[in-house]
Amino acid sequence: MKRHFSIRAKLFLRRARWGFAVIAAWFLLGTLVFRYAGGLGLEDAILNAVYLKKSAGEIWELYSFWGQCVLFGIVISIFFLQALQRYNPQEGCRMLAGELRNHVIVVGYTHLGARIVEHLRETGLPYVLVDRDPGVVDNAKQDSTLLDAGILHARTVVVATNNVETALLVTKKAREKNPQAHIIVRCYMDDFAEILETLGANEVISSSKSAFEGIAPRLAGK
Q1: Is 15's pLDDT higher than 90?
Q2: Coil, helix or strand for 54?
């Protein structure tokens, strides 16, 4: 719950940063006006600019009036923008992934990917799931996706996608971005195993090989 609140707060600050920048610029302008046009000392100029002190004169009246317009307009704009923009779970996931270290990246929410994710949840191991379906997480073939998933600090990358092209591209990109990561790739086609190893995969598990290893011991006993 605490981490969820932290992520929401960071998203709010990120979206509202332009508003805070305008407010800071307004206070800076007010300080300069009171300091040089109003002849106040620096401390008094700052206090007047942030409305903690009131000086007599036309400058204060003008600054106060326009300040209310500017600040009120910015605050309304920020909250109106927040009301229009629904919370984006993908953006929150990216921010959370950026805080992880020594985690597992699972590429592809296939039957195998789902089992791996379930296992990671049960064992409490940190992980990031990447999938082409936006309803799941993201598209691993995009250049920025692995960086968003924290590839630079990942311990293991499991490529569980059913798409050979995606497996090849992800393996290559993951190895380029993290030479130390342990990369495990599931591949349906044995012909691509050597290519995947050349691209940087530490282990390539093919369906036929796994099936053979499961059947071979039983053949000897029959």
Answers
A1: no
A2: coil
- d(C-alpha 117, C-alpha 164), whole Å: 21
- What is the arithmetic mean of pLDDT over 167-185? 94
Ordered structural domains, the chain, with CATH: 16-84 (no CATH), 89-220 (3.40.50.720)
- By CB atoms closer than 10 A (0-12, 13-18, 19+), residue 171 is buried
Structure-token pair, residue 112: 């195998």
pLDDT in tens, 177-201: 999 999 999 988 878 888 999 999 9
Cβ-contact 210, 193 below 8 angstroms: no
**Claim: this prediction has a pTM higher than 0.90:** no
| CA atoms of 156 and 186, how far apart (whole Å) | 14
Three-state SS for 94? helix
Separation of first and last alpha carbons in the chain: 56
